[in-house]
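Fold this sequence, please.
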Amino acid sequence: MKEFWNEKFNTTEYIYGKSPNIYLAEKLKQLQVGKILFAAEGEGRNAVFAARNNWKVEAFDISNVAKEKALQFAEANNVAINYSTQDFLEINYEENSFDTIALIYAHFEKSKRASYFKKINRLLKSGGYLIVEGFGQKHPDYQEKYPKIGGPKNTDLLFSVEEFKEEFTNYNFLELQEVETSLNEGEKHVGKGSVVRMFAQKK
């Protein structure tokens, strides 16, 4: 998987663009600035946006190519982000240390997600916020109509509202729904798609 993402990111272009995800940016503007973690952050568009808005940023991804591009992007914007190259289960941040955690198109195999979500729960402070946007169960229908929309071909990687309800029982859901949206993120997310959005606060 690391080789797959290294190859995908190995271009001078920022394949998902340099602008932040719109949903993420909208939610961050509602929150008090603090310490945030970006999982599977890729080329850094969201991490750099947060840093430019005075968040203390931690990020990780399995791709070292993505990390290099993210750090270059941060430097070009005169901000600092702490970015590590590791798998989800390898991360070793202090428990209850983040005010916000963001998963933006951070898709993982269903067999691994439960353990990943438990780790997220341990890292997030009580009262902290979780922001998620990722492709949902209805997305394959959109992939046929909009071939440039991207997203996993394997339906096992797609999110569902029901899964989040089951996994995050100790959260208040401020928003949790699967919706149609139009994306224009670089060259890999272009067109209409179906996404699950979650904005939740840990009890």
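The chain has a mean pLDDT of 97. The longest strand covers residues 171-185.
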